[in-house]
Amino acid sequence: MPARLPARNSLLRIALAGTSLIALSGIARAQEAAGGQTGEATVLEDIVVNSGSGGVIQADGYVGISSATGAKVDTPFLETPQSISSVTEQQLQDRNPQTLLDAIAYTPGTRVGAYGFDPRFDSFSVRGFDVTYNGVFRDNLRQPGAGSSLFKTEPYGLEGISILRGPSSALYGASGAGGMFNLISKRPTEDTLREVEIQYGSHQRYQGQFDFSGPVNDTDPVYYRLTGLLRDAGTELDAVPDDRIYIAPAFTWKPDEDTHLTILGEYSRTKTGGTAAYYNDPFTGEVTDFFGGNADFNESVQNQGRLGYEFEHRLNDTFTFRQNARASTLNIDADWAFAYQPNAVDPILLDSSAGTFDERLSAYVIDNQLVGEFDTGSLQHTLLTGIDLAKIDYRAVNGYGVSPPLDTNNPNAPRPVGHIPFQTRDEQDQFQTGIYMQDQIRYDAWTFTLGGRQDWVSTDTDSTDLTTGARTSTGQDDSEFSWRAGVTYETAFGLAPYASYSTAFSPNAGVSVETGTAFKPTTSDQQEVGVKYMLPNSNTLLTAALFNINQDNGLYYEVVDLPTGPANIQVQRGKLRSRGFEFEAVSSLDNGLSLTASYSYTAMKIVEGPAGTVGNDVSSVPRHMAAIWTDYTLPEDSFANGFGFGAGARYLGKSYGNDTNTVENGSRVLFDAAVHYDFAALDKKYEGLRLQVNATNIFDRRDPVCSAGFCYRDQGRSVIGSLRYSW
After folding, report:
1. Are 78 and 58 in contact (CB under 8 A)?
2. Rounded distance, CA 675 to CA 265, Å?
3. Rounded distance, CA 674 to CA 201, Å?
4. Cα distances (Å, whole numbers) of residue 431 to 17, 148, 461, 557
5. pLDDT tens-digit profile of 630-686?
6. Collapsing DSSP states into helix, strand and coil, what is residue 539?
């Protein structure tokens, strides 16, 4: 990924696919796999009214038990022949994440913070591959992105996150090599839920939020949920606010046990900065403490909304039909400026460019599924067939100009910028159709998973120079077959080794300036072996995996000699290889202790790429990463009844700051902490009142971090106190 300067508005590919949602069936198989226990039942997080492929992650505290993400139908983790993790509702409550990156920071193989402090985007990678544009899913359906048009995620609106690592196009269509992150929205509950909360934190952060749910009345099978918040907040940069309005209504109608319909909505408005970068010294290559933008010309306002539904109807004892659909849209309007070099006459002044852009992205997706559960002799089948459709419309207008130079002796001096007219317009329409089939075959302790999918993607792109009226149009059609095969064996004592092979593809929009032909799709394949172990008589899950991923036909920027002279253009002759090992442990014990820990080793190599990079490590991908978070609530009979404590550490090993491997990012450890108190311990009349304080990067490390040759700074310390009342 090239250095993320403020105006990231060049047309980027839009990959489309379906995804999955966490399900509610299959719990019996999960408990049997945990050692065949028949004693006290496991208490699972189960607060939704719908079943089948919709709902939350099935979990006991921190421990995910069952999910539909790995197979699009509910499947216990032990039967899924691929590496899968979850961020459960309890983890979200204990760590109180303020961004999606905070929420996933403790999951294995996930690299957050490669672009330092930046509240504008949730950019991250897994197993070395960026998944920002093609690996984020929401409620069983793909959440696309293009240019700077990336949907913002409010963690307070989530029930959990389910993560499938590695290529996954066999079910989900056009997607990347790293995997998929499925974000699960809060859904209506059968039991009444009422919660209000106020927060105050670093940088004058004020936030109020609420969450109400339950039956609409005492007679009709209709349930509702309404979640919302209002935030007025600053950040470590005075010119970059973090303000948000968020409201998410949801309704479920469940006339009988065989039918349900859930409607999910959301609207949010977020105000932040057009840029959040620090000035990079062009002579030393080091990042400075100077804000690279212009406080008088630095605003970004994003409005986004979505409306969708999940419908399920059991036709008979064998077949169930499901249909999930969503329409979503966003508009982002931003002004930005960026200082890029010392002035030739007075080096105290830093020359600055400026720009403005307006982007609109609309996405319409629908996924139709038919699930059959039947036996053929001694074989048990769960057969899934489906067809999904997706349409994306992307529009962007851009203007470029100059900003008054930054005076390093007086960096806070006013620097007004005049009106900048739009100079370019880009339009892209993409339509995707996919048909797929998967069979999960169970025989004794064996589970065989075999699936395949055919996709067709059509992309039309128009670019217009608004100053001359010149227009270029390109169209391309891509098709690809993807497949996955896997096998899992479950022992009687909870150990489940597995092996799998999977593939993925992602279409690339545009035409090569070098060859004059359309880009081929980027393809990838993975071989993975691993083991999962649900400890008998203990709510603890251990997983380990070895993987090898090959990605072909990736796009890179390279200086190429054209007839008109050297030019830095996109070329397609890349091949990346990621090999590594991952380990994860999650546990929630009866003594009040919960834990999640992970370790990842990733060797991400450039096999084919621009000159001077072949054989090198991909920038900002550490070989070693590790994380541990623990939370402990003191027992009721202790002297400090009601108190609880949390602590975490995130280790990032050394990495390179560019693909030529001439700049190195140092290793670092970031520490987080939490303390919480339940006032019911004082008196039962205070039941439901909870005070919690969370701190991230408590030692305020703000080391430089470089990616693709541009350097940023780690986000500094943040402390947030919250007072919540539930009744």
Report:
1. no
2. 33
3. 13
4. 10, 20, 12, 26
5. 999 999 888 899 999 999 999 999 999 999 999 999 999 999 999 999 999 999 999
6. coil
